[in-house]
């Protein structure tokens, strides 16, 4: 399977996950799909709260679900924001959490649809990741 096919399938799963979004305040559903090393895909959606600080993004929902299931390394991430007019990348908090579990060269596909999506690496989205700058 080519990267293009794999990314398209992963994006489709993120789009499906966005249908489970709980977003009564922003009306902005987001879904995320994480590809694990063994090929498993784990999804998440945004879950809002009337106290906005308690809202959880789709990306972090997917990461926390993956970790709860025993996964700690990711191969790719797709983020679908179907009501957006343009590709919306992960917020700063999500970028920070993602770098805890994924290397800088991890592909991140994001957009309102696959046809309007962009592909960047996590390192391109978060170039000065202090965790990895410190060395292993």
UniProtKB/TrEMBL annotation:
Pfam families to which the protein is assigned, alphabetical: dCMP_cyt_deam_1
Q: Which residues bind substrate?
A: 46-52
Residue ranges of domain CMP/dCMP-type deaminase in the record: 5-133
Q: Which cofactor does it need?
A: Zn(2+)
The record's GO CC annotations read: cytosol
Task: Supply the enzyme class, top level.
Answer: hydrolase
Q: Which GO terms describe its biological process?
A: nucleobase-containing small molecule metabolic process; pyrimidine-containing compound metabolic process
What is the protein name stated in its UniProt record?
Cytidine deaminase
């Amino acid at each position: 399977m080519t990267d293009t096919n794999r990314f398209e399938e992963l994006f489709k799963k993120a789009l499906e996950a966005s249908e489970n979004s709980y977003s009564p305040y922003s009306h902005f559903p987001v879904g995320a799909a994480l590809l694990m090393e063994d090929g498993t895909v784990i999804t998440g959606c945004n879950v809002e709260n009337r106290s906005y600080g308690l809202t959880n993004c789709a990306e972090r929902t997917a990461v926390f679900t993956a970790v709860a299931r025993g996964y700690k390394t990711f191969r790719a991430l797709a983020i679908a924001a179907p009501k957006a007019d343009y590709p919306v990348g992960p917020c700063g908090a999500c970028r920070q959490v993602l770098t805890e579990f994924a290397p800088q060269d991890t592909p991140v596909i994001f957009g309102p649809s696959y046809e309007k999506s962009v592909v960047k690496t996590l390192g391109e989205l978060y170039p000065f990741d202090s965790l990895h700058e410190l060395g292993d």
